[in-house]
Amino acid sequence: MPELNTRWDIFCTVVDNFGDIGVTWRLARQLVAEHSLKVRLWIDDLHAFERLCPDIDIEASQQWQQGVEVCKWPTDWPPTEAADVVIAAFACQLPSAYMDAMAEREKPPLWMNLDYLSAEDWIVGCHGLPSVKYKHVQKYFFFPGFQEGTGGLLREKGLLERRWQFQQSPQAQREFLQGLGIDRAEDALLISLFAYENSGLASWLETMASDSTPTHLLVPEGRILADLERWLGVDGLAAGAVHVRDALTVQILPFVRQDQYDLLLWSCDFNAVRGEDSFVRAQWAARPLLWHIYQQEEDVHLDKLDAFLERYVQGLTPAASEAISGLWRAWNAGETMGDHWQSTRKHWPELQKHADAWCLEQALQADLAAALVQFYVNWI
């Protein structure tokens, strides 16, 4: 791919706490690090961003972080020269003054709407197609995805090699976990839980607590803590708290940087994740997983869930497919989890092998950052 001396602007409005900014921050860094691009990341909520990047100055209107120019999205938009490539993440509306600046360029920029991740078949037909125009500036659809004909998934160079080396080193895993204050028992099942509020949690916890196999549940600070407090009968759960009930140990972790979260996913036997960014990272961890999809009006999200499951379970035996699909659907409906969890545990070796195969299959596609750059190269 040729070297590109180009400037890219990425716009992000924070809707889902960390999913939107998680994707755009990861993408911006990769475009800088692997493609030597000049990238500005415009964010409307630096408080949410601070959780992912503690070095951020939430009062600064402009600053540099890891090679990315991070700009606070101002209420009153100042005169700003439009970039060569403009990415509106997740259909966010660009400032009207900036859109005028795009139209005033002698050569209009490439303007792309980076859409939400989906496994639905229709996105293949829409990926890369022209969308609306603003004056003479054309916008294009760009869809991440799990199949050929989409934009692929975010995946940094060498990610799977680093993950494999880490998972082959018990010492590296032990040192990382101990750094977070985690003392894992050798016979315990290690599970991470990052989720939205869920009425099905109590039944899952009860099943793990009564299991013959001990479980160590690691819960990063987040929206699921209120449900966890109700089940434990405690108030004010915070990082560092550890509670034991029969075979279940629950430990609250601090919110960590993205690279540390990767290591957490790689260390666990099973990962419950939410939204989009952590969902993709759990797939690169090559471990069985449970996805809590972001809820949408009229249950549109359930169509997306079913579309992914239909693709994901291919290659599994009918029994294993039914077990993992039942678990996912129950979790996303807030239903009782006990029987579904026990069925999933019966097929653990097959699901582990399948998670590894799925990871390698997805890695055959170009990663999202490379696909965006190639789209620009083809466009010019």
From TrEMBL:
Reactions it catalyzes: dTDP-beta-L-rhamnose + L-arginyl-[protein] = N(omega)-(alpha-L-rhamnosyl)-L-arginyl-[protein] + dTDP + H(+)
Molecular functions per Gene Ontology: protein-arginine rhamnosyltransferase activity
InterPro entries per the UniProt record, alphabetical: EarP
UniProt keywords, alphabetically: Glycosyltransferase, Transferase
Highest taxon of source: Bacteria
Entry-linked NCBIfam families: efp_Arg_rhamno
Similarity comment: Belongs to the glycosyltransferase 104 family.
Function in brief: Protein-arginine rhamnosyltransferase that catalyzes the transfer of a single rhamnose to elongation factor P (EF-P) on 'Lys-32', a modification required for EF-P-dependent rescue of polyproline stalled ribosomes.
Name assigned to this protein: Protein-arginine rhamnosyltransferase
